[in-house]
């Protein structure tokens, strides 16, 4: 019969996991790691593993039960959906919202004792824990309600923690790589492209690649008319419309039936990355392209100078990514959308509006779901939400039309 490991040997295992000296004693470095806010899934138990069980299906249901009082319900829903979408984009998995207590993944914000034999410990300790795939409690994710949950970076970013915990719910274990989203201690991370190459490789090992080519970022789109096609950014540029997806670009001219397409770098050689948001200011004949906290100024196909930081536009440091941007030339304002909020920027004065940010749901009440792109065309705003496009009347605050993204490419 195997004897139970001593405290010292377990401590050495944990020290090895975090790259510390294997002393077997509670030295300052070890104590610092132990007191860092973290996931509640045991590091020591799983330190040598990268993956475990898997779901035996690719369509997985989820439900949000008890909510946190720190954030609006729609914000929690959006953060949870975005965290699951990060894994969906890297795998063949599809996540469907359910309102049943029988969903595969039950998400809840709970207190110390909450019925699973793993009580939480109050603020700044264990942030959350999850159970691997399986029946009953398998796949469930619990967040400690005692923590300060945010959609920014002042407390604990729900999207970052949820992405980590959903990794466990899908069968992934902790990683020793600090760049991995599955690293056990909490870090303020850029929310753009949160999954590391290791995370993508590990989820692919469990469930297979996202598409037949096995590529997380496809270099071409042979099936432009796929009804599930989504865009990362869309903008008018003169008489043309530019559609961005991953590192790919479609250019559609209003008076022409043919569409130019190819890698972004074919059209703008200085840019070899995904574009998160884009907009066009006709008075300057200038486009602005965003990636993470950087943006480029583009005239024609010429990228002017080096990338600048979005702090130059007046964004605070906790804004790490622009989801969508649109310029309304009649008001000389540009709207920037970041998660559940939006910002209004005066292009003439080059200042951010004093009332920014505002909640998207307050001023655009019928737009549900994360906005991935937006353009102003023919006197109306058009919001790209998933594979749907909504024509929006700003004065009436209502949707006046809807179609699919593929219809904009002539499908």
UniProtKB/TrEMBL annotation:
Residues where Ca(2+) 2 binds: 104, 138, 140
Binding of Ca(2+) 4, residues: 232, 276
Highest taxon of source: Eukaryota
Signal peptide: none
Keyword annotations of the record: Calcium, Disulfide bond, Extracellular matrix, Hydrolase, Metal-binding, Metalloprotease, Protease, Repeat, Secreted, Signal, Zinc, Zymogen
A Pfam family per the record: PG_binding_1
Hemopexin repeats: 272-317, 319-367, 368-411
GO CC entries: extracellular matrix
Positions annotated as active site in the UniProt record: 165
Keyword Translocase: no
Cofactor note: Binds 2 Zn(2+) ions per subunit.
Residues that hold Zn(2+) 1 according to the record: 114, 116, 129, 142
Listed GO MF terms: metalloendopeptidase activity; zinc ion binding
Main location: secreted
Subcellular location: Secreted, Extracellular space, Extracellular matrix
Positions bound to Ca(2+) 5: 278, 325
Motif (Cysteine switch): 37-44
Binding site for Zn(2+) 2: 39, 164, 168, 174, 182
Annotated residues for binding of Ca(2+) 1: 70, 147
GO BP terms: collagen catabolic process; extracellular matrix organization; proteolysis
Cofactor: Zn(2+); Ca(2+)
Family assignment from sequence similarity: Belongs to the peptidase M10A family.
The protein's name in its UniProt record: Matrix metallopeptidase 20b (enamelysin)
Organism: Cyprinus carpio
């Amino acid at each position: 019969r195997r004897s139970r490991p001593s405290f010292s040997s377990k401590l050495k295992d944990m020290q090895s996991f975090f790259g510390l000296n294997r002393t077997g004693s509670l030295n300052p470095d070890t104590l610092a790691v132990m007191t860092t806010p973290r996931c509640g899934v045991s590091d020591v138990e799983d330190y040598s593993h990268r993956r475990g069980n898997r779901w035996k299906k690719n369509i997985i249901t989820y439900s949000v039960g008890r909510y946190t009082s720190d954030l609006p319900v729609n914000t929690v829903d959006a953060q949870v959906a975005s965290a699951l979408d990060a894994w969906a984009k890297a795998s063949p998995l599809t996540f469907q919202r359910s309102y049943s207590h029988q969903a595969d993944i039950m998400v809840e914000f709970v207190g110390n004792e909450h019925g699973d034999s793993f009580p939480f410990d109050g603020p700044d300790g264990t942030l959350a824990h999850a159970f691997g795939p399986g029946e009953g409690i398998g796949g469930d994710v619990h967040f400690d309600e005692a923590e300060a949950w945010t959609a920014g970076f002042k407390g604990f970013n729900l999207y970052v923690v949820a992405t980590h915990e959903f990794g466990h719910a899908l069968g992934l274990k902790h990683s020793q790589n600090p760049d991995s989203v599955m690293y056990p201690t909490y870090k303020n991370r850029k929310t753009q492209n949160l999954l590391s190459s290791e995370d993508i490789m590990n989820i692919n090992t469990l469930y297979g690649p996202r598409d037949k080519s096995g590529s997380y970022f496809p270099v071409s789109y042979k099936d432009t008319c796929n009804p599930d096609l989504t865009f990362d950014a869309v903008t008018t540029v003169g008489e043309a419309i530019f559609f961005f997806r991953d590192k790919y670009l479609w250019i559609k001219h209003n008076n022409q039936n043919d569409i130019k397409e190819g890698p972004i770098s074919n059209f703008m050689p200085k840019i070899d990355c995904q574009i998160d948001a884009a907009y066009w200011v006709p008075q300057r004949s200038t486009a602005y392209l965003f990636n993470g906290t950087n943006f480029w100024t583009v005239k024609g196909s010429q990228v002017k100078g080096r990338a600048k930081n979005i702090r130059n536009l007046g964004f605070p440091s906790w804004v790490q990514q622009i989801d969508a941007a649109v310029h309304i030339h009649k008001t000389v304002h540009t709207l920037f959308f970041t998660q559940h909020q939006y910002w209004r920027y005066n292009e003439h004065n080059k200042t951010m509006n004093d009332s920014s940010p505002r909640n998207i749901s307050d001023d655009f009440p019928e737009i549900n779901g994360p906005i991935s792109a937006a353009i102003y065309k023919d006197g109306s705003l058009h919001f790209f939400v998933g594979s749907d496009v909504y024509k929006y009347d700003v004065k009436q605050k209502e949707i006046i039309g809807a179609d699919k993204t593929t219809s904009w490419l002539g499908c």
